[in-house]
Design a protein that fits this description.
Layout (H helix, E strand, L loop, with lengths): L5 E8 L2 E8 L5 E5 L10 H9 L3 E5 L18 H15 L4 E6 L1 H12 L4 E7 L7 H17 L1 H12 L8 H9 L4 H12 L7 H4 L6 E5 L8 H10 L4 E4 L5 H4 L2 H16 L3 H8 L1
Parallel strand pairs: 3-4, 3-5, 5-6, 6-7, 7-8
Antiparallel strand pairs: 1-2, 2-4
Helix pairs in contact: 2-3, 4-7
């Protein structure tokens, strides 16, 4: 694979510091947003492949995530606020438009950004969005995190200390990402989960149907946390979108070639032709 330049940067949005990594160069911008509590490094493999093919890719740590600031105020966290942070990143980079991509929470954030500033979005690359069919599962997965952060902070701190003690260079990549995800501060973790859990999880169907940009939606069959029905529903709602089913929950992590190709083809078409997403959707 072609080697690409990689640069770490930061900017301030509403007096809060956000950190990002930039891959490659040029005007074909792609922004990738990770899942809840996960670091931006989870998108490093895809970012490198897209950049090697000519994209200018940026992975972002949202507020409360990774190496960005982690305030302990739940009012600062919501998918709409995260969407504003993505648009602020584009402003900081002087990027007129970009393909916005995200996984889980990151997919919802990309949708929010597309609603907030549709003129800034070239396309949407969305993996396992969390929408109407995930409410009950979201409660079951978020409640224990919130409970642990609020009522068992010593346990959260203990897990953080253990995760930090493991050198990232000696473990497989995805183990390292998992360890980074466990590196949480109790107060900030509680605020982040509280803000997302009790706020707007994502745009309602009436607003999603109004998003008119090319989209590639990837769903995971048999994923109990991210119901595949949400991905299929979103693909039907978005104009001219294309739906791709992963073979397993771990396909894009363990055997990424097929989905990497689909993502690369989609991003390439988005920049080659403004109606690329509609063309893909019509042919799928």
């Amino acid at each position: 694979m072609t080697l690409v330049s990689e640069r770490i940067g930061q900017f301030f949005h509403e007096d809060r510091r956000l950190e990002y990594t930039e891959y490659g160069s040029g005007d074909d911008w792609v922004v990738l947003v990770p899942g809840q509590l996960m670091p931006r490094r989870m998108h490093q493999p895809l970012a490198r492949k897209l950049a090697a093919a000519g994209g200018h890719v940026v992975t972002l740590d949202l507020l409360g995530h990774g190496r960005s600031d982690r305030p302990a105020d739940p009012l600062l966290y919501s998918t709409t606020a995260f969407g504003e942070q993505v648009i602020a990143l584009l402003d900081h980079l002087d990027a007129d438009r970009a393909v916005l991509g995200g996984t889980s929470l990151g997919a919802n954030v990309a949708l929010e950004a597309a609603l907030a500033a549709p003129e800034r979005v070239t396309g949407l690359l969305l993996e396992m969005p969390v929408l109407d069919n995930a409410v009950e599962v979201g409660m079951l997965t978020s409640a224990p995190l919130l409970f642990a952060a609020r009522f068992a902070p010593l346990a959260v701190r203990g897990v953080r200390m253990l995760s930090r003690a493991v050198p990232r260079g000696i473990v497989p990549f995805w183990v390292g990402v998992g360890l980074d995800t466990l590196d949480q501060r109790p107060a900030a973790m509680a605020a982040t989960v509280h803000g997302i859990f009790f706020g707007r999880l994502g745009p309602p169907a009436s607003q999603r149907a109004g998003i008119d940009v090319p989209a590639l939606v990837i769903g995971h069959p048999y994923d109990p946390v991210h119901p595949v029905a949400d991905a299929q529903m979103l693909a039907e709602e978005l104009t001219g979108s294309r739906y791709v089913a992963a073979t397993t929950v771990l396909e894009w992590r363990v055997h990424p070639d097929r989905l990497d190709r689909a993502a690369l083809e989609f991003v390439t078409e988005c920049f080659r032709h403004p109606d690329a997403g509609r063309m893909l959707g019509a042919s799928s």
